Structure formats: C-alpha cells, structure tokens
Protein 1
Amino acid sequence: MLVAAAGVAVGGAAVSVPSAVATVGSFQAPQPKQSPQPKQSPQPKQSPQPKQSPQPEYSPSAITPAGAISLKLGSSQVSHGAPLLVSGQVRPARAGVEVYGQQLMNGRWTTMIIEKDQAIRSQPDGGYHGQLQIADTTNGPTEGKVQVRTCTGPFDNPACSAPATVTVS
C-alpha cells in the first residue's frame, strides 16, 4: 500500500493538504444499479370452490333469553314427596310461556320433570302458579335444605329466577 502526505508552506503561512490514500493492486468495480423487479404474471385461475351454506353471524340477542322471571314459594318447608307450590311473574308479560323448575343437585342445576298435562304456563298478565316436585337423589330421598329456581326459555340458556331455599323433611 502506498500512502502520500503533503504539507506546503505558502508565503510564510503553513497550509495543510489532506493526505491521499491510494490502494495499489486491488480494484473494486462500481456496483450496478438495481433494476426494478419484473411484474409477476397473474396467478392461474383456480376452479371455483363449491358454495357452502353461510354461517349465521354471532348475535348475543340470538342466544340470550329475553325477559326475566321471579319466584315466590308457597312455603319454605315441605314434606318429602309433597309438591312445592310456586308462583311468580314472567316479564315481559305474555300468556302461554312455559315455566319449569330446577333443583341444585351435586353442584349442578337439574331440571325437574313435569308431566305434560301439569306444565306451568303463564297467564296474560305474566303471572304463573303451579306445583313442582323435589327430586330424590341417586343416594336416596332428598332431605334438608334444597335450592330451587324457576326458569323459562331454552334449556341450554334459560332465563331463571334467583334461587330460593326449601327445607325438605
């Protein structure tokens, strides 16, 4: 490598000339400019897919039960095997709404079986009254404190009253 530096005095003043660096024996060719990428040809058309039935859009109102229901017990104590009298209101008020009872068993709400001819239906003012039968557990008769509630709407997403406690003896 050859390096040259120079300093020159002109008219009594010192003038500094920057050093020049030269490399001998290697040469770098200038880099060519990047040419723009050629446009891609359009993709070949694929055969049309068979039409699928459209999926329904998620709508909270489609799965959320409309309205509310209240519960009033005829008594807070019932004898084993005796029916439990219930009454309350369905809102908004409308006639013919089926009301069913649920009982808390082993940590899960279980729907009480109601005979078809004994179904509880609301009146035009939204009021209802009927009888529910406390179910026995698989381990024997139900005794002690039992939580019950009344519900309306689909079994997988019902509108239910607040639970009430009944003592079964």
Note: Residues 60-63 form the longest helix (4 residues).
Protein 2
Amino acid sequence: MCATALVGTSFGWMPSAQARGGEAVVCVGKESIEFSPGLTLDPRPTDVTARAAYRCGGAGAPGRVLPATGHILGHSPRSTCVTLNSGRARETVRYGDGTASEISYTRSSAGRVAGITVVTMNGTVTEGPGKGGAASRTIALLPHALPTARLTPEGLQRAVGRVQLEIHP
C-alpha cells in the first residue's frame, strides 16, 4: 500500500462551507496502518486501523492550507501481504478549523509494483463538510518490516506511506 510517488502540488485551503458549494477538497499527507492479525501469504480476515496526517486545500483560496487528521477503521475479509482487499472502511477526517467529515468507503482495489502496494478506496461523505460527495483516497505503502515478516505466523503488522484524499461535490 505504500508509495509510488503521490504527486503533491500546492493547494489553497477552502473553508468547509465551500466544500459543500461545488469545489473539490484535496488532502495529501502521511499514513500509518496496523493490521490485525498481521498480513501473511495466506488469505484471512483482517482488521485495519490507520491514522493519517493531512494538509488540505482547494481552489477556493489559493495559498492557504489547512491541517487535518484522519482515523480509519476497516475490515478485510481475505487479505494477504500481496493483495489487500478492504471490504468496507470508515474514515473520520478532522479539519484544523474544528469541522469533521465522515466517509464510508465501499469499494477498493490494490496493486503491487516493485515492493510498493498502492490501494485506491472509493466511497461517499456521509456527514459533515462535503456530505453526499464522492470520496477517493490513494495510499502508496511500504512495509514497516523486512519482507520476510510475511513468512512468520505474526505476519506484516504495520505499514507506512503517502496518502491522497479527494472529496468531490
């Protein structure tokens, strides 16, 4: 799930009210993920917990950026260290202006290139700024352990990487 390069550009922050008014919000940052039980070569049900630190912006106010945090809880019915399938997940995004959005992810896909796993998740904003809008996040992750961790009974328990979240009206 870690990073091919997520391209970061300069973003201007738009206030939360504008996110509902037709402008996209784009957040980029770093993410830390924990898998329980750890990912191995054998498919098994896995709980996923992730924390993201974002910098968010949009076209509403060029040059302004707002910090945000994300907390994700999900469950994958059959994940391995090669294919991370995320059945469903929920994310709470808390913006630096005190507002928060709840996002429900219902679709995901994953691919692996040169030891990097890239996961794309798609869903809908169910509460808060952007409510009713489409949400898409891409996570590019590197394992937080040696590749041989997947061969142990404990498996790969952590990964870190770059994330980009987009919320469209």
Note: Confidence is low (pLDDT under 50) at residues 1-20.
Protein 3
Amino acid sequence: MPRLAVGTRQSKRGRASEPGVGEGSQGPTVLPVPEYPTVIFADFKQRDAFVELQKRRMKPTCFIDTTILEDLKVETDVRHIFETLGMTSLYRLRKHFYAFLTLEFMSSFTYDAVAKTVQFRFMNTSFLLTMDMFATHLGLAQPEKGALRDIPTECGASSYMPYFTGKSAPTSSNMLINDVQHITLKIFLRALTCLLYDRKDVSKLNSHEVMLLVAYLNPTRAPRVSYSAPAIVCASLALMATSGTRYLSCGAIATRLAERLTTFEASSALTPMAPSVPTLDCEYFLDQKWLRTLEGGGMAWRV
C-alpha cells in the first residue's frame, strides 16, 4: 500500500493547524496511473478525475510580451486593468507548465464559495486554504475601491456588449472579441482567456469575461453583487476542472502555487510544456489582425 501523504490543514482564519492525514487513509488501495507512478491519490474520486483530465488537451500558459505593448503605447493601460481588478500577479506571471503538477492540482481542486476555502493536492500532500491565504500565495489582491462592485444581477452579460462594441446587444452565445472596439480591452480579454477561460473558439467571449469588463468600467449603478479576484480565479479553475470543452491552460498558476507551498523546484530533469518566449506577441497580434504595418515602417493598432 502506498505511503499516505500528510497535508498541512489551514484553519478558517488562515493559520496553520495540526497536520492532518490526507483523504484515502482507509479502505482499498488507490493504485497510481501508469504514466505518473509517483502521484499518490487521496481517493478513487481524485484518481478518476486525474484519468479524465489526462484525456484533455493541455496548453502552455500564454503570457504577454510587454515590450510590444510599451512600443505601441498601451502597456500602462493594459496593466492598469489588471491592477484595478487585483490581478497584477496574473499580468506578470511567467511560469512554466508542468503536466504532472497541473494534473495533480486540477484533479483535486475544490472550491467552497460559502466557506471561502479551496482544497487541492501537490506532491502527494493535501492543502486546505482560506481564500485570503490562497490570494496571498498566488499574489492576488483586493480590487481597488470602486472596482468589481456595481454589477447588475438581473441582466445577462450580452446586455452590456453595446458599452464595448457600439452595436446592438448580440445573443450571449455570439459575443465576439473582435466586436470590442478598444484595443486595451481586447488584449486584457485575450490574456485572461489564455489563462483561465481557454476554449476551442477563442474568438468568442463568455459571460465571465464580459462581466469582468462590466466590473472594471462600472457602467451602471444597478443592484450590486461583490466579486473579488481570488473568487473569480477559484470559480474559473473549478469550471476548467469539470468542463470537458476547455483546455487545461492554468499550468503557470499551478507552478506558482507549488513553488510557494512545497519544495518543488524546476530543474533540468523536468521537461516543461511551456514555450520560452511570449505567446501574446507581435506575431500573434498581426495574425489576429489587431496590428497593421505602416508604409513608412513601424506598426499601429487597427481601430
């Protein structure tokens, strides 16, 4: 029978309590999967989730080439959106994607929105963190005053698309990123898509992304519902873990957490999936037709 992992449990106030034995200490042996024999599962549920996640496509986490944004005078504006929403750490995230870390993390990830806790496993160890502790380890912050505040609860996301597109509201299933007119909002949306909402058709927006824009711009004073960066990230990870239509693109988040919570260190013995160059770069923006070349040389954003 494999050795049982001992995990550090966190109290509701975020202080470390006595170590607790991970789930699965009783009952039949949970055998490892052949491809990752060193991963010890807490229970059969995690193993089943791990096997299902293996069938999904894993994509290295994209990150923004801030140099091209600086050259084209939009870096400050794009960064301001992330800062306002308390997501500066995601804007600066530069971590490799390791398949075994991501699979272990996502197969065990649970988010309790009522208790405001998250639970997951790394290196055969279980972790139970309060939202505050999770935010601290991931580098998320409380949003600036006024951000993520005035979000009408009775309207669908498509109701707000005219604010960003200047067009009549499309249906919620037909919201396109290229309909958004402001280039800084486009870049923010695509970066967030690659990190948390990756899917087969990235040309379309989903309601979560539109509501984040609503939260940032605060176009109305209708009844409120409070959001926070940690809650948004946790809800997105939980959705990614259970939705078979989404790619696993959160490897950079898993790596950052593993480095903060365990003894994991990247080494030459481990082969990351991530590219070593920015993936939201000049070539990408040209391919998306967001940039155009000028006759006299140089480039400019399309408007």
Note: DSSP finds twelve helices and seven strands in the chain.
